[in-house]
Design goal:
Blueprint lengths: L12 E3 L2 H14 L5 E3 L25 E3 L2 E2 L10 H5 L4 E2 L2 H13 L4 E4 L8 H18 L4 E5 L8 H9 L2 E9 L3 H6 L10 H9 L4 E8 L8 H12 L4 E5 L7 H9 L25 H15 L2 H12 L13 H16 L3 H9 L10 H21 L4 H18 L1 H5 L3 E6 L7 E6 L5 H17 L3 E6 L7 H11 L6 E5 L4 H4 L7 E4 L1
Parallel strand pairs: 1-2, 3-6, 6-7, 7-8, 8-9, 9-10, 12-13, 13-14, 14-15
Antiparallel strand pairs: 4-5, 11-12
Helix pairs in contact: 4-5, 8-10, 8-11, 10-14, 11-13, 11-14, 15-17, 17-18
């Protein structure tokens, strides 16, 4: 939405839907004179969208492949940037195009597909034609795909649509539920969520054997500190394990952003692209910022407790019909997964976690065992995320980081004095601080050993980010650098590797793990 923000960071910026402008860029690039800026200003006819080159991917590194049928959504949620980017009139590919993409994936042996449409049922008539096509395709080819997608909750009001989703083998759907508070839903113009009791709608979807991932938001203008317990109780009763709760943020150019800008309630210099961290660019109306942050932490910290992971699973099992599993993993692969789950998931929680796990075991519905294990893995993964990002308040994190900075400055003083290393501390308003290491000279083995220990400590004990800048690289220290990066990979989303582009081939940095910046 704001490509102008990136023109100083790249030689060439390509923004918007790619079908028309990407070929233009490629043509100019091959000719040796790419333009500095390409932007699609109109809406693309998806009939022009080619079959993706899936064969160029290392296919075995992916659990699921992505497809897209449509763009756009008919609703008017004021915080959503999708309608700003893609419009409110859904556009779709032809069924012939979908068939060609399925053919390509089938020949590659793919059996799990995520339809990445922001609302697959934005055009219900077109969606039903797609679903019937998927049913017929799988029968015709004697091949079973399992699908997942994103859709609006009005899918629960259409029995024919639900039946087709089941027949087409959709195993899960992500739904933007946002809030159990009707006033907040009206405020944000999420009127499609008000036609029927939300729990009734979710259980209608469960009844088709379709699992639900849910998106939730706290911080609407009608929200008071009471919203956190209300959200918590709703999520537990809904049985949704993959409950992605975020603070209300206002993406640029959305109706919400425009309104809050007029009201003087936008916080400058705050990133708006991540609503799962402990900051927002919105000044709350009916609570303080501290109440919002502390309530958000309380909500997540309770959701990921073992007893509430278990309670959500039991809530779901009461209403979920037996899903269709098309697990093609060999029996030894499944046993390895179960063994790893018990060893690294259940065992660390001791007897209390084992007890809660056993209360979710579907004795009378053994076909649901894979779902129970999956939900425990999801819940414990979310627990790990919360412990890494939320357990320490921003104020505590800043105090700890200042303490660690002093310690690190003392430990690495000799390298700083020799001008081989520069260390800086950057506190950005309303964000966790950033600790920056800039390597400007040749360092010995002892440095990397100490850096590994202390950087992991900072990442484990605070929510801060780290920037590692390599201006020079000593070739005989490349193994130590790679070892350091391997140890830090667990926290890769909070680490930026800044490196001279001429040195990049020596490090082989995985940009899917770390944030990579070329200098």
């Amino acid at each position: 939405l704001c490509p102008e923000n990136y023109t100083d960071l790249a030689d060439c910026v390509v923004a918007g839907e790619a079908e028309y402008i990407w070929p233009a860029f490629c043509k100019d690039f091959e000719a040796g004179h790419p333009q500095p800026f390409y932007q699609e200003t109109g809406l693309v006819d998806l009939a022009a969208s080619p079959v993706p080159r899936y064969d160029l991917l290392d296919i075995h590194q992916y659990r699921s492949m992505s497809m897209q049928f449509s763009r756009g959504c008919p609703f008017r949620c004021d915080f959503c940037d999708i309608i700003v980017m893609f419009g409110r009139k859904p556009r779709s590919k032809t069924l012939f195009q979908i068939g060609r993409e399925l053919d390509r994936l089938r020949t590659l042996g793919i059996d799990s597909i995520f339809f990445v449409d922001d609302n697959l049922i934005g055009n219900t008539k077109a969606a039903k034609k797609l679903l019937q096509f998927l049913v017929d395709y799988q029968r015709r080819h004697h091949y079973t795909f399992s699908f997942g997608t994103e859709a609006s909750i009005n899918m629960a009001y259409d029995a024919e649509l639900l039946a087709l989703l089941r027949q087409a083998n959709f195993g899960w759907v992500f739904i933007g539920i946002e809030s159990p508070d009707e006033s907040s839903l009206r405020e944000t113009k999420k009127l499609q969520n008000l036609r029927q009791d939300l729990l009734t709608s979710l259980r209608a979807i469960y009844a088709q054997g379709i699992d639900i991932y849910g998106g939730f938001i706290v911080g609407f203008d009608h929200d008071t500190p009471a919203i956190f317990k209300k959200q918590f109780q709703f999520i537990v009763n809904s049985g949704i394990q993959m409950a992605m709760v975020g603070l209300l943020t206002a993406p640029p150019k959305t109706p919400l952003y425009q309104r809050l800008e007029q009201e003087g309630r936008l916080i400058p210099d705050v990133q708006h692209g991540d609503n799962t961290s402990l900051h927002t660019n919105v000044i709350p109306k009916r609570m303080t910022m501290d109440e919002l942050i502390q309530g958000y932490r309380w909500l997540y910290e309770n959701l990921v407790k073992d007893r509430f992971i278990a309670r959500r699973i039991r809530s779901k099992l009461r209403f979920l019909a037996r899903p269709d599993y098309s697990d093609k993993v060999a029996i030894n692969g499944r046993m390895k997964t179960i063994l790893n789950f018990l060893t690294y998931g259940i065992a660390p929680g001791g007897f209390p976690r084992l007890f809660h796990f056993l209360t979710t075991w579907p004795v009378l519905k053994p076909k649901l065992i894979p779902l129970v294990i999956q939900d425990w893995i999801l819940g414990l993964s979310m627990r790990h995320f919360v412990e890494a990002h939320f357990k320490v308040s921003p104020r505590q994190a800043q105090n700890r980081l200042e303490k660690y900075q002093r310690q690190i400055g003392s430990i690495f003083k000799q390298y700083i004095d020799q001008r081989k290393l520069e260390i800086s501390f950057n506190q950005i308003r309303n964000r966790a601080a950033d600790l920056s290491f800039s390597v400007t000279g040749f360092l010995d083995r002892a440095f990397f050993k100490n850096a590994e220990k202390h950087l992991v400590k900072v990442l484990r004990k605070t929510s801060s980010s780290i920037t590692l800048q390599f201006q020079v690289i000593q070739t005989n220290r490349i193994p130590q650098i790679k070892r350091l990066l391997n140890k830090l990979a667990k926290y890769g989303d909070r680490i930026t590797i800044s490196v001279d582009k001429t040195l990049l081939p020596y490090l082989e940095i995985d940009s899917s793990v770390f944030n990579l910046k070329l200098i």
